[in-house]
Amino acid sequence: xxxxxxxxxxxxxxxxxxxxxxxxxxxxxxxxxxxxxxxxxxxxxxxxxxxxxxxxxxxxxxxxxxxxxxxxxxxxxxxxxxxxxxxxxxxxxxxxxxxxxxxxxxxxxxxxxxxxxxxxxxxxxxxxxxxxxxxxxxxxxxxxxxxxxxxxxxxxxxxxxxxxxxxxxxxxxxxxxxxxxxxxxxxxxxxxxxxxxxxxxxxxxxxxxxxxxxxxxxxxxxxxxxxxxxxxxxxxxxxxxxxxxxxxxxxxxxxxxxxxxxxxxxxxxxxxxxxxxxxxxxxxxxxxxxxxxxxxxxxxxxxx
Length: 304
Known about the structure:
Elements: E1 6-9, E2 12-15, H1 26-30, E3 33-35, E4 38-42, E5 48-51, H2 53-66, H3 75-88, E6 94-102, E7 116-123, H4 131-136, E8 138-146, H5 152-155, H6 164-175, E9 180-184, E10 190-193, E11 197-202, E12 205-208, H7 218-229, E13 233-236, H8 241-245, E14 249-254, E15 258-265, E16 268-269, H9 277-290, E17 301-303
Parallel strand pairs: 8-9, 8-15, 12-13
Antiparallel strand pairs: 1-2, 1-7, 3-6, 4-5, 4-6, 5-17, 6-7, 9-10, 11-12, 11-14, 14-15, 15-16
Helix pairs in contact: 2-3
């Protein structure tokens, strides 16, 4: 991670090295915090724009509401804070990490009087799975770790504690020579990767699992909207590993991973082992959109 100058911390921009929390911060002990990953891109016209900032901040508040966390700022205040943090750090492009967490005070599960703190950091970061992965695809494995939650409602919240199984799945994948892991739901259906949504293409039909287990990804939603505009047949349905392995194309979506093709799963090539035409068309559409080249989607861009 490349350090920048300032971090927005509870309403103030402070030096990066002074952004500290107490060791008895409640969220450190019990794993309850809500967060987002957002990207800013330098557009073709030279300006910089945050991709789907409103939707990301709205999801942050939705996640907080699900876990009964009251964020002490408005959505518009945090949207402005994101822009301010990018500007003060002189970032033309970058990754933005807002997080709201329960601060120090009472200990124990029922700590209703502790402050809710909010931090926004921004820093340069390339594609999570690498430029080579974006271009040629990555190798993944189906993990033994499940993507599961105590309830379907919790699965819709982007919570820090939800990522423990994802961390283990990712570590296992890396240790066994793969770049990413695909996780199943408790009923044995394909859910998502460790930190990305998943799509397959079979017979020119685009498919993705319904939101019974996966996180409702904002890039996922963009791909679905692109597919409808581009007249690509689309279905939201459950499928098993067997159908995944028999796909013509597979790719991952996410703010960090962007649109990353999968060329191999568990040592087996997907089709001919390289990105397919529908994946490439959706990639092209996505990158044109975030670069400000698609007038239809200019409302998704917040310019600095």
